[in-house]
Amino acid sequence: MDKPKSLSIPCLFIFLLLQLTILSGTAQAQKGKKIDAMLAGYKPQVLVGQSTELKAFGKNLILQSVEINPSDGISVRDIKETTPDPNNRRQQEKGTKVWSFTIFVEKTAQSGERSVVLVTPEGHSEQEIIRIVTHIPIITGIEILSTESSSCKIEFTLSVFDEAGDLGAKPDITVWVECGGAGFGSIKAAKSVVKKDAINSTVHVVISNVTPGSYCTGMCNLRVSIEGATGCESDYLKTQVEFKR
Question: CA-CA distance, 93 to 81, in Å (whole number)?
Fold first, then answer.
């Protein structure tokens, strides 16, 4: 019986080229695959000239790198797996892995929104947004003026320190009220701003939930944040408010 003929050098070259093309195509398809992973928190903020630790999570997430666009003046460091947030139910789900990474923003970086994509061996995440900001407004001293149980109405004031003095006449205010596990929120609360000077203000807020059948009673949790004209948002200020029927 004749022995099988070996491949000639030209045929072997073509065969290897085809294999490399297939592998390359597979790698490109894998790179373009969208994975179910996301940042922890909505539009996280990073101050110019500082570093901030952010977190990402997803099912069986293996975070290789983080792509930021535009990337001028920004670097990503210290990518590592970390423990889930005990107060975040999604991070506690079976099979979910949480990763942390540090974003450093140079003093010369431009403020504004940047896109973020999480890169893994299986593909990359949908684009999300972080905000590069020059300062963060500070809110203090919530004073509850009145409450109304039937409509969950709350009227209160708060003090704002804004070092850049760009709070604006109608800043966006996010309010979240939670009573016994149920809650509602609004960023369209009726409000007025009284400025004491260029950087100090008092904000008067009125919010209510007019959904039929909804009401608040007893001690409830109140969270408030405020956003200036340039998109800088304060941390949440938390307190409790009592509704009497």
Answer: 16
**195 beta partners:** 201
What domains sit in the chain, N to C, each tagged with a CATH number?
A: 37-133 (2.60.40.10), 138-243 (2.60.40.380)
Better-predicted residue by pLDDT, 187 or 208:
208
Instruction: Say what the pLDDT of residue 118 is.
Output: 96
Residue identified by tokens 């409790």 is 240
Residue whose entry in the numeric block shows the structure tokens 């200036």 = 228
> What is the Cα 122 distance to its own chain's centre?
23
Instruction: Report which residue type is found at 61.
Output: L
- Tens digits of per-residue pLDDT, 98-108? 999 999 999 99
> Collapsing DSSP states into helix, strand and coil, what is residue 167?
coil
* Tens digit of each residue's pLDDT (9 = 90 or more) over 68-89: 999 999 999 999 999 999 888 8
Q: Report the distance separating Cα 205 and Cα 177, nearest Å.
A: 13
Name residue, tokens 């630790």: 53
- C-beta neighbour count of 27 within 10 angstroms: 10
